[in-house]
Amino acid sequence: MIRKLAIDGNAPAFPDGPPKWPSADDEVHDALATAFANGSWGVYEGPNCTAFRNELADFHSVKFAHLCCSGTMAVELALRGLSVGPDDEVILAAYDFAGNFRAICATGATPVLVDLAPDSWSMDVEQLQDAIGPNTKAIVASHLHGCELAIDAICEFAKSQGILVVEDACQAHGAKNGNKRAGTRGDVGVLSFGGSKLMSAGRGGAVLTNNELFYQRIKIYAGEGNDAFAMSELQAAVLRPQLAKLDERNAIRNQRVRLLLSDTKPIASVSPVRLPDVDGAVCYFKLPWLIADSNENSIDRSWVVAAAIAEGIQLGEGFRGFAKRSSRRCRKPVPLENAIMAAERTVMLHHPILLRPEQEVSLLAQTLSSIFQAMSERSETKN
Ligand SMILES: *Cc1c(COP(=O)(O)O)cnc(C)c1O
Question: Hey, how many other C-beta atoms are within 10 angstroms of the C-beta on 298?
């Protein structure tokens, strides 16, 4: 039976709206109180920064972690660690976080766009060969939504060509394939602790690497002037208890996603993300769907988002992507159809509801099913 939708004037499924993020956390409260009591909140570099740097490196089993002010800055520092600069080219997916394009430009290098693999939100490894040129120095590859990227294939390709990989794990905190965490397979890995992320300090970022030369270059670049891109002691203080709980929370989110997807009625025009076989290989930052549009104007997608928001569900549109950017700003050697489609058709559910009890997730599945169903009925009437 179809739920009566809030967009038609009925009662919303979640009258209080989406859960707040970051959620209330006693240990974060204690960390703030301790930093206040011992005065460490006011120092340039205190015990929490030192401890968090070590804990982050241990958690990821890497030799070096560098803390900084944002994920975007972490991407730039990573590129600088690899000595990327003017006259170099850096490959990235045409559907990615906008700041990654900017970080490449900030080094003076030129972005080179590749497509997403079909039916996914991950870079198409098959296109890398056609995208590489004599000046290509690196690839920036992002695990979007927390989903596994074909990072091993990307690293293998890069190695065979003598180029380097920045692995962006800003949306994949703690994801684990085998015994390797997201962010540890590229030459340099990047994390963000921005306000929406699975671990949040409002702002913040980190760079991970096993390569001492890259690490030294990053430290030297970041340290020029007065360490102007540093993480603060208070940010490190609130991140430490969140790191300790990350695996446990990722396991809950993964279980809720399986429940949600199995309870959401399949509809031909809506494709969910494909779940990997390996448990723990994903950690959901967003749960994406592709809406197959029945007309060119993305009316179905904006209707779905409006209907979800009316129910108190935090569903939004995906990235705008770079495929339509001018070729004066980037090189576009390969077709970018999947990236264009993802930019026009992606909707994504934000993660906070995935830590809520199972009954809420079932209600969510039921509500989303009704919305998707109503959308497909609307499009049929239009056609
Ligand atoms: C959030 C994010 C970043 C950058 O993080 P900020 O801390 O917001 O600067 C980079 N890449 C991806 C994929 C992200 O989701």
Answer: 14
Q: Tell me if 110 CB under 6 Å of ligand 1.
A: no
Query: How many helices (H) and strands (E) are present in the chain, helices listed first?
Result: 11, 13
Whose CA is closest to 92, among 342, 321, 343, 324? 321
Rounded CA gap, 146 and 129, in Å?
Answer: 26
Q: Within a 10 A sphere around the Cβ of 216, how many other Cβ atoms?
A: 12
Q: Which residues does 88 contact at the CB level (< 8 Å), separation at least 6?
A: 107, 108, 109, 110, 135, 136, 137, 138
Cβ of 71 less than 6 Å from ligand 1:
yes
- Give the pairing of strands 164-168 and 136-142: parallel
Cα(71) to centroid(ligand 1), Å: 5
Neighbours of 3 (CB within 10 A): 17
Q: Return d(Cα 99, Cα 176) in angstroms, integer.
A: 25
Return the exposure string of 38-51: e unless at least 16 CB atoms fall within 10 Å of the residue's CB, then b: eebbeeebbebbee
- CB of 40 closer than 6 angstroms to any ligand 1 atom: no
DSSP β-ladder status, 164-168 and 188-192: parallel
* 74-93 confidence digits (pLDDT tens): 999 999 999 999 999 999 99
What number does the ligand 1 atom closest to the CA of 72 have? 9
List, for residues 230-266, the tens digit of each pLDDT value: 999 999 999 999 999 999 999 999 999 999 999 988 8
Dihedral sign from CA coordinates of 123, 127, 131, 137: positive
Q: Are 93 and 113 in contact (CB under 8 A)?
A: yes
Question: What distance in angstroms lies between residue 285's CA and the mean position of ligand 1's atoms?
Answer: 12
122 lines ligand 1 (CB under 6 A): no
Query: How many Å apart are CA 181 and CA 218, to the nearest integer?
Result: 21
Contact assessment for residue 115 and residue 322, using Cβ atoms and an 8 Å cutoff? no
Query: Which conformational region is residue 260 in: left (phi greater than 0), alpha (psi within -120 to 50 degrees), or beta?
Result: alpha
